[in-house]
Design goal:
It is built from six helices and two strands, in the order H-H-H-H-E-E-H-H. Helix content is about 70%, strand content about 10%. The chain folds into three domains: about 30 residues; about 60 residues, Arc Repressor Mutant, subunit A (Orthogonal Bundle), CATH 1.10.10.10; about 50 residues. The radius of gyration is 18 Å and the shape is globular. The longest helix has 26 residues. It is mostly helical. Strands 1-2 form a two-stranded antiparallel sheet.
């Protein structure tokens, strides 16, 4: 039987290894960790206002301005007027540099695909449910700090 503390240990080990992988990727792309995380969130959630991203991350708006300035200068994002409200600005990811990121994560992506092939569709559904709940718990914990 697998103990709950062993699951905690495995999650800490996973977090550390993914963090180290992300640091390597960020170093190769000249992305700070916070910039990389914000870029991921912009890519995942689509165009959004800087204030929505600041709320999602818990970052101060002035900090968010610096992050967005760096991402825009490096060609990762664009700031555009919101077509629904010309006073508002939307940030959106630019696709030109996506192959750079994809190539650096390709080894991990292939490994995950191979691991997932070893599980049935039902088992993969359980794994996805677990990971989604862990992600939600981390978000809740972040928001409560």
């Amino acid at each position: 039987m697998v103990s709950i503390p062993s699951i905690h240990d495995a999650l800490r080990a996973l977090t550390a290894q993914v963090s180290l992988l992300n640091q390597q990727v960020g170093g190769r792309l000249d992305l700070r960790p916070v910039d990389r995380d914000c870029l991921y969130l912009i890519s995942r959630h689509g165009p959004m206002t800087p204030s929505a991203l600041a709320k999602l991350t818990g970052l101060h708006p002035a900090t968010m301005t610096g992050v967005l300035d760096r991402l825009e200068k490096s060609g990762w994002i664009a700031r555009e007027r919101d077509p629904q409200d010309r006073r508002a600005v939307l940030i959106r990811p630019l696709g030109d540099r996506v192959p750079e990121i994809s190539s650096l994560y390709a080894g991990m992506t292939r490994a995950i695909d191979g691991i997932c092939d070893d599980y049935s569709p039902e088992e993969r559904a359980l794994i996805l449910d677990f990971l989604t709940k862990i992600t939600d718990a981390a978000s809740t914990a972040k928001d409560s700090l």
